[in-house]
Amino acid sequence: MITLTINGQNHEVEVDPSTPLLWVLRDKLAMTGTKFGCGIAQCGACTVHINGMAARACVTPVSMVTDAKITTIEGLSTDGSHPVQAAWVAHEVPQCGYCQPGMMMAAAALLTQKPNPTDADIDAAITNICRCGTYPRVRAAIHSIAKT
Amino acid sequence: MNFALNRRLFLQASTVAGGGFMLGFSLPADDAEAAAAAPEINAWIVIQPDDTIIVRVAHSEMGQGAFTALPMMVAEELNADWAKVKPEFINPTEHVQRNRVWGGTATVGSRAVRTSHEYLRKAGASAREMLIAAAAQQWKAPANEVRAEKSVLTHTPSGRTLSYGKVASAASRMPAPKDVVLKPHTEWTILGTPKNRVEIPDKVMGKPVFAIDVRLPDMLFAAIEHSPAFGGKLKRYHEKAVAKMPGVRAVVPLFDTAVAVVADSYFEASRALTVLPIEWDRGPNGNVNHADVLAFVKSGLTATDPLEGASEGDVVAAIAKGAKVIEAEYHAPFLSHVPMEPQNATARVTADLVEIWAPTQNIEATLNLAAKAAGVDIGKVKVHPVMAGGGFGRRGGQLEYVPEAVELSKRLGKPVQVIWSREEDIRQDYYRPISSAKFKAAFDAQNNPVAWDTRIAGQSIMSTVNPDALKKGTDLGFLVCFTDNPYDVPNRRVDFGMRNTHVPVGYWRSVNHSQNGYFRECFVDEMAEAAGMDPYQFRRKLLAKAPKQLACLDAAAKAAGWGRTLPAGVFQGIAQVDGYGSYVASVVEASVRPDGHPKVHRVVTAIDCGHVVNPDTVKAQTEGAVAWALSAALYGEITIKNGGVEQGNYHDYPMVKMAEMPAVEVVLVPSYDFWGGVGEPGAPPVTPALLNAMYKATGRRIRNLPIVKEAQPRSAD
């Protein structure tokens, strides 16, 4: 039995310790906001926070995060009021929206570390893939939060 | 914790599983019953007693905005209060049973708005007239004394009012007017104004709006591998090697061409599939490699028996007499779609009902495939509408994951979700066709172009998606951009050396415009150079009789500041391509590093889509089309080895990310005398405009994509 602290709540799961966090979230806990995109840490659709840092859940074995504070898109806010979520709505960022939970988690982690990121900071920190091509709006939304 | 989801978790996760799809406005049970009880004004519109207006949507939502744009068209003519409009997807079974009352469901070819604008606006106008008639009857007043505004009916002489909800029931019994007059765009109050896309608040919360998020009690997960070579078959596999692995429930061969491992979680299924020994018969094309494919396709450039395309004047004679003749050969590779949501489907097959959840660009196709796979009448199939995590042409009809899920659920006796790994998605796609082009252009002594000969060689999409249609002749769609070439050159010809490989091809966002737009607009730049003219001015001259293309070209050039002073090393390129009923031109500003890799600084695109429904969506689609085109231009290439695809994930089939994405400016120049598409036409001009800018920077033409292959290994910044 493994205990995970996700969005401030403890969850006990019976899984192989090598199971990636992504599949524990999605298949064992039905927290499907965190997405599967590639399985090899290339696309960032599975981005969550581990102790406040952006991490790719598809390559993070649960055994590595038993003592960590895990935050998923479901825990970013309970009502969509997190500044990143509000900015994403204001800028109409999502198109299909599938990559956006990961994109928003990456943006939220960046803004925690660098409240006023430069374009270069954004380029370096946001390495998620969006096939719809929402990148210009992601950038504008992040800058709008920095300005507030 | 036991795998079976507890009730609370299930309810959290199951808004898509619970029946009707009501994104962002999940109704309490009482309201849902009221909604069911409220009568239709017509097939598109249900108005509830509380004034909520349900507008049915027959097209898919995959990020392109149809779920908002289509109801906007109904609401405009209905004179509805937009805040009270609640879009709802149709039930495709009912659609078929009601003689396809909701029109087309295929969400392809940038068609959702441009094929449905008339019947949707008429549905709104007709319902408005019925509401007016019902109110007039109640007030015992003539209808022309009643006006409808923002969901309120007003008796003009007395000032009495009724909300739509109060007369909806009576209105539903009124005869539908025989004909209605639609508003001119100058009277629009909803259309043409930016409206927030209705599902975005749910999408930023990570709420389960996708098929891959469906969670059902007792459901199992399947990982699947298909024949790595196209046309191959499953020979044998050694089930015992994985049977005792944790969570594994079954190993199931599917349709001779695939094998699936079913387990308690996708991770367990996928892990077992990775170690499952599988032997494939790679089939008749198992030895085909990319060099073979390339040689075969390029042989179409020199074929002496090409298929006819279009011809004007006498191109052969004009070239023979030309004072100057230029020639060039271009090539475009196979490309994969890779939508962010991998292919997947969930099926729950019971004795009475087949339920299916799957990303789709055609919900009726999903219905038909599920019914066929289950061997039941469509009346026993319920398709749960979900939004798709991208589509881009991949999910228009080739939805193999639907019958796979149905078959697995049937065999296992439980709900099953099948998910294709990213590797399967890339290796089992219907690719943008491989093709080549060979051009000749002749000029007279005054440098006027007098002849333009084009040979296209490559693989017809019809060869995969509708081979019966192909048997009747050629595939003229493959020659688009040339059969409708707007450039005024007196002697022109295009013909086709069709070369259909064994690799399945399909509709890839912007389809044949993607490669032909690049071929044509790069060669137009070569023609401009041969004529000694600025590429923008040369296009202007040859588009004198094509006013829409010309206006768009001018709008892009003006917005970008064509010819303005740029930072050292930055150059402009321009291109224009019309398609999907719309006109688009782009200016790209780019520099090229010493190692040959470009940096794209700015893209300015002007689009004339005729009428603009939701301006912000037109902009978003056009911005996105830039990323779509750039990923392909910079990196995209699918190659063949031993009959199958070599690439498998984003590391060897890369995408543009934030750091490579330029600033994008979109200029809307609607001319309001037609209805054009928006999802695709933004992409084709971007690649040639970039290549034309790179030529100015380096003096070297790139005629083969992707650009990364034409550059040196990337040096450090």
How do the strands and helices of this protein lay out in sequence?
The complex is a heterodimer of chains A (148) and B (717).
Chain A (H helix, E strand, L loop, with lengths): L1 E5 L2 E5 L7 H8 L18 E4 L2 E4 L12 E3 L1 H4 L6 H8 L9 H14 L5 H7 L9 H13 L1
Parallel strand pairs in A: 1-5
Antiparallel strand pairs in A: 1-2, 3-4, 3-5
Helix pairs in contact in A: 3-6
Chain B lengths: L6 H7 L15 H9 L2 E3 L2 E3 L5 E5 L8 H13 L6 E5 L2 H6 L14 H28 L6 E4 L2 E4 L4 E4 H9 L27 H4 L16 E7 L6 E5 L2 H4 L4 E7 L3 E6 L2 H10 L2 E4 L8 H10 L7 E6 L2 H7 L2 E9 L11 E6 L4 E4 L5 H12 L6 E3 L17 H12 L3 E4 L2 H6 L7 E9 L5 E10 L3 H4 L1 H5 L19 E8 L12 H20 L4 H8 L4 H14 L10 E9 L2 E11 L5 E11 L6 H21 L4 E2 L2 E2 L17 E6 L17 H13 L8 H4 L7
Parallel strand pairs in B: 3-4, 8-18, 16-17, 20-21, 24-27
Antiparallel strand pairs in B: 1-2, 2-3, 5-6, 6-7, 8-11, 9-12, 10-11, 13-21, 14-19, 15-16, 15-18, 19-20, 22-23, 23-24, 25-26
What does this structure look like?
The complex is a heterodimer of chains A (148) and B (717). Chain A is 36% helix and 14% strand. Chain A is α+β, with helices and mostly antiparallel strands and 148 residues long. Chain A has 2 domains: 2-76, Ubiquitin-like (UB roll); 83-147, DNA polymerase, domain 1, CATH 1.10.150.120. Chain A is globular. Chain B is of the alpha+beta class. Chain B folds into 3 domains: 38-203, Aldehyde oxidase/xanthine dehydrogenase, molybdopterin binding domain (Aldehyde Oxidoreductase, domain 4, 2-Layer Sandwich); 211-283 and 343-419, Aldehyde oxidase/xanthine dehydrogenase, molybdopterin binding domain (Aldehyde Oxidoreductase, domain 4, 2-Layer Sandwich); 290-335 and 430-710, Aldehyde oxidase/xanthine dehydrogenase, molybdopterin binding domain (Aldehyde Oxidoreductase, domain 4, 2-Layer Sandwich). In chain B, helix 3 packs parallel to helix 5, helix 5 packs across helix 6 and helix 12 runs parallel beside helix 13. The interface between A and B is large, with 62 and 69 residues.
